[in-house]
Structures are given as C-alpha cells and as structure tokens.
Amino acid sequence: MQKKTLITAIIISVLTVGIGIMAYLLIHQKQKNEEYIELAELDKKELENQYTEFNLQYQELQKSITNDSLIAQIEVERRHTQQLLQELKDTKATDAAEIARLKKEIESLRKVLRTYVAQVDSLMRINQDLTEENKNIRAQYTRATDQISQLSTERNELKDKVDLAAQLDATGFWVTPKKKRGKETQKAKDVKQIAFGFTISKNDVTQNGERTVYARIMKPDNTILQRGGGTFKYEDQELQYSIKKYIQYDGKAQSITLYWDVDEYMAPGTYKIFIFVDGQMIGETAFTLK
Prior knowledge:
There is one protein chain. Strand 4 (231-234) and strand 5 (237-240) form a beta hairpin. Strands 6-3-8-9 form a 4-stranded antiparallel sheet, with no helix packed on it. A 3-stranded antiparallel sheet has the order 1-2-7, with no helix packed on it. A two-stranded antiparallel ribbon has the order 4-5. It has helices at residues 2-63, 68-89, 96-124, 132-166, and strands at 170-178, 193-200, 209-218, 231-234, 237-240, 243-249, 254-261, 269-277, 280-289. It folds into 2 domains: 2-166; 170-289, Immunoglobulins (Immunoglobulin-like, Sandwich). By secondary structure, the protein is of the alpha+beta class. The protein has 4 helices and 9 strands, in the order ααααβββββββββ.
C-alpha cells in the first residue's frame, strides 16, 4: 500500500513539473508573438504618419500660393495621398504584402512632392506673405513630425531588441594549422590544412531549423581564400566565402568544426577568420603563420 502511494506521489510530481514547463513555454511564446505584433503595429503607425505628413505639406503648399492651375494639380496629388492613407488604415498591420506595397507608394509620393515644393519655393521668393492658417498648418506639421520621430525611435528600439535577442553568437574559437601528416605547425610553407572551430551559443529566442554557416578566411594581403567563386549576401552586398556548411540548429549550444585544404602558396603573416549566419557576422578570430 505504501509503495502504491509512493508511486502515485511520484507521478503527480512529474505531471506537476511537466505542466509547469508547458505553461512557461506557452507564456514565453506568447510574449515573443506580442513583441512581433507590436513591432508591426508601430511600423504601420509610422507609415500612416508619413502619409499624414505628405497631406499636410500639400495643404501648406496650397495655402502659400495663388496660382489656380498649380493649386488644382496639388489638390489631385493630395487626394491621391488621402486615398492611399485610407487604404493603409483599412489594412491590417500583419498584412505584410499590402504594407510593403504602400511603402513603395511613399517613394513615388516623395518624388512628386519634391517637384511641387521646388515650384512653390520659386513662387514664394516673389510673395513672402504667409496667412495665419498657414502658420497653423506648419504647427500641425511640426507636431506630426515630432510624433513620427517618437514612433520611429520606439520602433527601432523594439526591432533592435528582437533582432539582438535572436542573433546567434560564436564563441570559443580555436585554429590548428597542420602539416601533410596532420601534425600541427606554425610555418606557412608547411601548412597543408587549416582546421578551426567554435561554439554557437545557446539561444532560446531565435527560430530553430537549418542554418547556413559561411566562413571567410582572409589572408595577410586582405584577399579571401576561395575555391569555386561562391558568394553570400551581407548588408546589401555580395561577399566571397571560403567554406559553407549546413547545420541543424535546435537552440542549444553547438560545436562546429571546419577544414580548409591548402592548395596554394601561404604567405607568412596574420590570417583572419570571420563567421556569418543569417546575414550577420557572429564571430571572428585570427592566427599567425611564420
């Protein structure tokens, strides 16, 4: 009887711990989702304020001129801006495709607005008298600009927080230059293989799954050891890589080892190794050959 009671207590304890872990994971995932939704809402709000800013600027231009033809042209563009603003307000913040389209529209509106600003500035050199209503519109524009600046700051801070938390990190680097038979050497003329490795740190925030690890080995003359001409994207540019390796990342710390077989002249000097994952440089190290 006592044994049965003990088993029952153990089962209850295990279930309690399991439920606690599941509750923690659900809460953690909910918090992460809320951060992404908040970021999308801030992004949409910032876009709405940009459209509002353009609308106010068109009103300001109309109040500062008396040329009926130019006023009519500006009115057409102002109504177009209002239409796009209404489309944006009717769009869900999570509708990435529609938000992206309306962001592209902003660039076209900005070019058109610059054209009218140039024309109005030319006219205003002749007539510098501003009405009181125009001053009020300027005040509205200033308030809108301040609000946009504040929202942009909040959005960037939140985005930086999310991106930084999800970014992987490489630590514990080691490098072993080897001779033909695998013995370690520091002499450049004897090196036949470069073995190196590192550990990708644990990360509970980033998404699990397949990752591509790129390694760039930079020679003392700042050129890259390369075979095959492969490249990858980093900060809107194409970079050459020395080694590419696919890994399965599950959020836990993971040791990575890479090898470069030497088939060219290795000059004495300092070599640098840079590691990239998900479009980010996650670590670097260096070694010297004599």
